[in-house]
């Protein structure tokens, strides 16, 4: 590799055709070098040619190379220089005229084609071949997959040859025509250029910049951009040509969609183009969320298209403070996802997620969180029921779009049965008629709603409870009796309390929680010495059951079935019975059907009513 000094000047760059035995003079000069060792080199050789003279005038040093007479061995390419520095221009001395056309190709694009033409030849060349600077020869008879030499037909002193060759780097090849023992040659350059591009992945709406860099040419090219969208404002910035490279940048404002631009370089008439992509990405979250009260909310920020490492494109994440939650949100920026987690949401809220992209532009996303809850509203059903109506209701403020996309279903026997829900204000209710048989005892019935394609499922269970109470009791003489009610077979619901009344006067309020459930639980009203109508009200949490017990006294006056004790009486008008001669407690099993709700996700289900009779104990 040689350096070229600009102020070393050949007087001309030419191709001289000479005949053997004639005189040849070549000259070159250098400015402001008074004691320079100006020498000549032949065919890019390392040893200088000695046959030259130096003259110095007006600060210009001139060297003249003289061959008189010139011999065949003197034919070739000559440059003058100082040390290893050579002049850019050269003079080729030949016995025939050889013209050449070099090539400039894009790296990796295929073969380069170099051409040489011979003229003024007195006879057909005996040999035509190419040679590189390492001395390797390329002949038409030796063509391989790496190169191909073509030699044209000799006609009227003219002949052509071409070299097609695959090369990864710029190089110089020499074509040679041997005519009558003399060689006419020409050095032919192949320039390999490469365009390196810098594409851009930019957030929608932000500004970006893309770049092209042409490398490998020693001649300054020109460059132009094309493509994209006329609706986008662009600015071109091209650096000065230096180090055999030219860099150009295109700034694109407010990118709204994917764009393709093309940079085109013109290198001495040869044009080379490469596409550069501008791709946009967007972050999004659902516009609305539907969530059960006091549940965890996880918002996953979606990225389109997927980004290998989202952390490089999402900076300074935070969320708005005007939300109603239990605890602060946790923002997690992973390699491919961003998640926002609220531990417990207790009221409807609006979440605003704010972030900056890789260009520093601020963005925000907003989602409205709708909160729903499912309330217990259940009643018991007494014995003799043949059919019960199950009811599932969801409460919460829904958008009109949500309400338009609501359906309900019940899963019975492994099959879904779809029902049309009733929407009233902030509640959505679905109902299902179910037969009450021995096979439905403790049976699970699933109900649910589908809101905009997302299902919310719940489970209802049929729990048949036995309540044994004293039915008719008689007091003998001055003795006392006690009244009892026993709650059993309750697998899912624990009794809360029992309240005893005589008429409308409360006699006992007994807490039953922790009294042994799920084993049978008994409530007792002791030391009864007066006749009358007594009531036991059992609170099961979701509903209450009332049983009336008639207490008589042997030889006493008849008991007022409504208010033997002077109170308001029983609401259901039940009557006691007498006729026993001894104090006796007769246990009667009363099957009671109630509904237990096992919430799977959100919501509640319940038995509301039955087809045959009111849901109330007597």
Structure description:
With 618 residues, the chain is an all-beta fold. Helix content is 1%, strand content 56%. It contains 1 helix and 50 strands. Strands 13, 15, 16, 19, 20, 22, 24 and 25 form an 8-stranded mixed sheet that branches. Strands 28, 30, 33, 34, 35, 38, 39 and 50 form an 8-stranded mixed sheet that branches. Strands 1, 3, 5, 6, 9, 10 and 11 form a 7-stranded mixed sheet that branches. A hairpin with a 2-residue loop joins strand 26 (259-267) and strand 27 (270-284). It is rod-shaped and about 170 Å long. The chain starts with a strand and ends in an 8-residue tail after the last strand. Residues 1-6, 376-384 and 558-618 have low confidence and may be disordered.
- The total beta strand count reads 50
Spans of at least 5 consecutive residues with low confidence: 1-6, 376-384, 558-618
The description of the largest β-sheet is: 8 strands, mixed
Radius of gyration: 52 Å
Beta fraction: over 45%
Distance between the termini: 114 Å
Helical content band: under 10%
Q: What is the SS-derived class?
A: mainly beta
Shape: rod-shaped
Number of helices: 1
Average of the residue pLDDT scores: 78
